[in-house]
Design brief:
heterodimer, A: about 300 residues, alpha/beta, Rossmann fold, Alpha-Beta Plaits, 2 domains, 6-stranded mixed β-sheet, about 30% strand, elongated, B: about 270 residues, mainly alpha
Chain lengths: ~300, ~270
């Protein structure tokens, strides 16, 4: 089932083309990442989808045919910062959310416990630390067990422990089969939790697809030997090697598909080259992401 | 409707600034209606010196005119309450969050209209209760059927309070910042509009000023026809300043302005990004 479809969604703020004819499709059960550097249009896109920013052009549909309040009630969304009344207790704040969403108030203890704030339920929101506020926001969007979650930079400003907690929570929720749309500028985060991804730069879609194909890429292995020049020659002749780069005496090698580091080692051994180092470096994600983003250089950046 | 009422109730009633301003408003009202009888009871004025003519002020049914008039004098407090409540929604980003959670933008507006009507209603009830108490204490002989004959003035007061708060709502939604909005409202109501009215009255048409929104709204409940004003009229040439439109004319204008405020607020809320 298609959860969300956008068609040429477009938005400008003055001279800045924040979102540029963006078409997306999110299907049920996907953990869909929207990845891009700061200012690439992630928040603007989500804001349009949630009805708080008006699109200049294009259209979108939730759940096949819905838009606006009816769709939003079926979605748990956190855009940018947790927004609550500072002078009200957590309980009252969540009660307001329940009223809006039409959710039974008896769901409050469940979500409060899920995010570990049960001891603070009567505290005023303003007395919480930032991490707790973020957790409350997560709890709030789980009220009523919505079908879809929309998360915008949820781990921003959290300490490492908080980040780990939030990611675990997201993965837990994802494992129950819910659809999650997650915007982030952190590649690692998208790679760790998402199944599908779209990469944005200056509001334009650079690439989209399954995370495994798109950004996980192939593993890189680093090799070196006593005689680097001989190794260089052997690597360029080898049919097992897709490409390699020399960094002084180390070589970063990308192998052809289905080829294991062992195959390469065996071949080199046969050619009389003894490796002094063979290290598998899990894919050069950061590089690949930067590569993708760099391709699209506009005068604005 | 009930859903919006409950949502607003959750956030308005526990709000400290709301509680304080509500107490200030009630206090200002009780002081203003209580001070005259207090002076009279504690002084030794002979009947001839009695310029504070309680008879025309605090007797049924004129008391409704008096109390509506005094209550309306402090309506600026109500306007400020509304500005704080709306300004909060912007500074806390909660209007935004409400829409994300599933309210429509029209719901945002109607929630605030419910708050405005609720506040006006609560105050009308307060004025009614105090009117009854003071009326029964000070009236010396009244015809029972007369007691409520001027009660419609409380309805006028209700409309006046609502329209003043709608003006505040429009400004607050437009400016999105409570401090700025309070300053703008006060400057407009007490300085800017009076100056514009004076200038226009002098150079364009002597009655033009009577049609300006704040003039129409703040003067809707007429000044009670009391001895003290007669005296001022005679002695100070204030008569010129007391030129006014008939009550029904003012009422029509207030309703018209209220409609305009509502429409403008709705337009801003529907069009603008939150």
């Amino acid at each position: 089932m298609i959860i969300l479809e956008t068609d040429n969604l477009d938005k400008s703020y003055g001279l800045v083309h924040a979102v540029n004819h963006l078409s997306l499709k999110v299907e049920s059960g996907q953990v869909f990442g929207i990845l891009g550097p700061n200012g690439s249009g992630k928040t603007t896109t989500l804001s349009m989808l949630m009805g708080i920013v008006r699109a200049d052009g294009g259209s979108f549909r939730w759940f096949g045919d819905q838009q606006g309040p009816e769709a939003n009630k079926r979605i748990g969304a956190l855009i940018e910062t947790p927004n609550f009344y500072p002078y009200l207790s957590l309980e009252r704040n969540l009660r307001i959310v329940c009223r809006i969403k039409g959710v039974d108030e008896r769901d409050i203890p469940r979500v409060i416990k899920l995010v570990g704030l049960q001891d603070r339920i009567r505290s005023r929101f303003q007395t919480l630390s930032f991490g707790m506020k973020q957790r409350l926001a997560l709890g709030s969007l789980l009220l009523g067990d919505p079908e879809v979650l929309v998360l915008d930079e949820v781990t921003n400003g959290l300490d490492p422990e908080g980040i780990a907690e939030v990611r675990t929570l997201i993965r837990q929720i994802a494992s129950t089969g819910k659809t999650i749309i997650l915007a982030s500028h952190i590649l690692d985060e998208v790679e760790k939790v998402c199944t599908h991804v779209v990469i944005l730069k200056n509001g334009k879609k650079l690439a989209d697809g399954e995370v495994d194909n798109l950004i996980k890429g192939k593993d890189v292995i680093v090799v070196s030997s006593e005689s680097p020049d001989q190794l260089a020659g052997a690597l360029s002749d080898s049919a097992l090697v897709e490409s390699f780069e020399r960094e002084v005496n180390d070589f970063s090698v990308i192998l052809g598909s289905e080829i294991t580091p062992g195959d390469l080692s065996k071949e080199l051994m046969g050619a009389g080259i003894v490796l002094t180092r063979l290290e598998i470096r899990k894919h050069r994600l950061e590089d690949q992401f930067l590569e993708l983003v760099k391709q699209e250089n506009t005068p604005l950046s | 409707m009930m859903r919006l009422f409950h949502i607003e109730k959750e956030k308005v009633l526990p709000y400290r600034v709301f509680q304080i301003l509500a107490i200030l408003y009630a206090g200002a009202f009780i002081l203003s209606v209580g001070s005259l009888p207090l002076i009279k009871l504690t002084s030794n004025l002979t009947h001839n010196q009695d310029i504070l003519n309680l008879k025309s002020l605090y007797f049924f049914p004129q008391i409704w005119d008096t109390f509506a008039y005094f209550a309306a004098k402090s309506n600026i407090f109500l306007a400020i309450i509304v500005i704080f409540l709306v300004g909060n929604e912007y500074s806390y980003n909660t209007f935004r969050q409400h829409v994300v959670n599933g309210l429509s933008r029209t719901d945002l507006l109607h929630g605030k209209v419910i708050v405005i009507v609720g506040i006006a209603l609560a105050n009308t009830v307060m004025v009614f209760v105090f009117g009854l108490i003071f009326g029964f204490i000070f009236s010396e002989g009244y015809v029972f059927g007369d007691i409520f004959s001027h009660l419609y003035m409380l309805g006028i007061y209700f409309i006046q309070a609502v329209s003043h708060m709608l003006a505040a709502l429009m400004l607050a939604v437009w400016l999105r910042n409570k401090t700025l909005t309070v300053v703008v409202l006060i400057i407009y109501q007490f300085i800017l509009e009076p100056i514009i009215r004076l200038v226009l009255n002098k150079y364009v048409w002597a009655k033009l000023g009577l049609f300006f929104p704040m003039r129409v709204i703040t003067k809707l409940t007429p000044m009670p026809d009391i001895a003290i004003t007669e005296m001022f009229k005679a002695n100070t040439g204030l008569a010129d300043l007391l030129v006014k439109l008939p009550l029904w004319g003012n009422l029509l204008l207030v309703l018209l302005y209220s409609g305009i405020f509502y429409m403008i607020t709705k337009r801003i809320l529907l069009k603008r990004n939150l």
